[in-house]
Amino acid sequence: MGSGKTRPCPCQAVDRNACSLHAGIDPAAVGNAVIRAAKSHERMIALVSSAHGFHLLVRDPVTATWSWKDGNAESVKLDIFLLPSNAYVPVTDAVLNDLLSARKQDFVWRYGGMDFRSFFAVDTRVAMQVAA
Q1: How far apart are CA 6 and CA 95, in angstroms?
Q2: pTM to 2 decimals?
Q3: Is the N or C terminus of the chain more exposed, i.e. has fewer CB atoms within 10 Å?
Q4: How many other C-beta atoms lie within 10 A of the C-beta of residue 42?
Q5: How far apart are CA 71 and CA 34, in angstroms?
Q6: Are β-strands 53-60 and 65-69 bridged in parallel, bridged antiparallel, or unpaired?
Q7: 60 HSE (CA, 13 A, CB side)
Q8: Left, alpha or beta for 22 (phi > 0: left; psi -120 to 50: alpha)?
């Protein structure tokens, strides 16, 4: 991304360019733009990954909170441990940027070694099957 050229963005193909990913862009602004661009029938997803795998966080449009399934434990997580406050906090839109990029070191979770990659939207009107 260091070239400063515009990269493909979520929603670009349907003329709803949610963001322009280039060097120097504010990650919080990108996240906010993507969330604002989501339509009522879309569920927003955040993708994080490392050399060893990937993980997805899903946004609940009603509560504006993000959740994720904790690996093979089959449990859904809604809160995360925030070191400065020494407490668990819900992963809201306001917390997401800090968790994924700005203050990653302040949070304790299994996926802290993964880097934020992208946001994308899933149309909830379309039935999907995920291979196990």
Answers
A1: 26
A2: 0.66
A3: C
A4: 18
A5: 26
A6: antiparallel
A7: 13
A8: beta
